[in-house]
Amino acid sequence: MNVAAPFHRARSDEQRAERREAILDAAAAVLAESRVSELSLTALAHRVGLAKSNVLRYFDSREAVLLELYDREFRAWLASVTTSTDADPAAAATIDGLAAIIAATAADRPVFCDLCASAAVVLERNVSVAAAAAYKRSALETTRALADIARPVLGDDADAAALAFSGGTIIVIGGLWAASQPSPAMAEAYAADPALAAMRIDLRTGIRELVATLLAGLRERVPRLD
Questions:
Q1: Would the pLDDT of 109 be above 80?
Q2: Could you tell me the fold of the domain covering 61-225?
Q3: Entry pTM
Q4: What single-letter DSSP state applies at residue 7?
Q5: CB 167: neighbour CB atoms within 10 A?
Q6: Which residues lie closer than 8 Å to 111 by C-beta, 6 or more apart?
Q7: Which is more confident, 127 or 223?
Q8: What is the per-residue DSSP string for 65-82?
Q9: The domain 1-58: what is its CATH number?
């Protein structure tokens, strides 16, 4: 594992922002090689070239780092979804087309998927009130942005349905990511028994099918939701 060169303590707001970005970049690099559950503050500090105590000068905890990284990854994913929907607006206005876009862009971002799976049960559990509030304010923006992406399918006036789509989609992505990452023993069992292999989940296929089901159900219920 490569270690960044140590740097001096930040003195200005600009330097502090640079340090925070460096720590987030290091966390993303570690997660590209492992899982959220395996990332320790020690490993993160080693990757960025700081002592643990210095990492904690910029973030309250390991979870605070990952929560901010999740927000950054969420926004990057939304940008990729928007690029895809803008490229083919006709497909994005259909249930199957939008579900396929959501599935393809999410499956291509394993760090984002892993963070989705961990956000509510891990990342929100060891952060300060200030960090929690900042994250939730940002999450309001990203939730509404994702809801807007579904409006061509659900209808411009389907506010409640669009917001339900946003929350449900993240649950689908996180839940299917966790279910599609078998332990070594489970992977070996799947490989040894073709009957068991049918239980193995394909992430992209699962997201596409469940998001399509979610969209179809919400569109049917729009009059009652709004």
A1: yes
A2: Tetracycline Repressor; domain 2 (1.10.357)
A3: 0.85
A4: -
A5: 13
A6: 28, 31, 32, 69, 73
A7: 127
A8: HHHHHHHHHHHHHHHHHH
A9: 1.10.10.60
pLDDT at 93: 95
Paired tokens of 71: 């927000």
In the chain, where does DSSP find H-type helix? 13-31, 41-48, 52-58, 62-87, 89-92, 95-107, 110-118, 129-154, 159-179, 184-192, 194-197, 203-225
Task: Give the start-to-end residue ranges of the domains of the chain.
Answer: 1-58, 61-225
Distance of CA 137 to the CA centre of its chain: 16
Q: Are 218 and 161 in contact (CB under 8 A)?
A: yes
Polymer length of the chain: 226
> Long-range pairs for 30-34 at CB < 8 Å and ≥24 separation?
31/69, 31/111, 31/114, 31/115, 32/110, 32/111, 33/1
Written as six digits, the tokens of 23 are: 């720590």
For residue 51, CA distances in Å to 6, 54, 152 come to 9, 5, 49
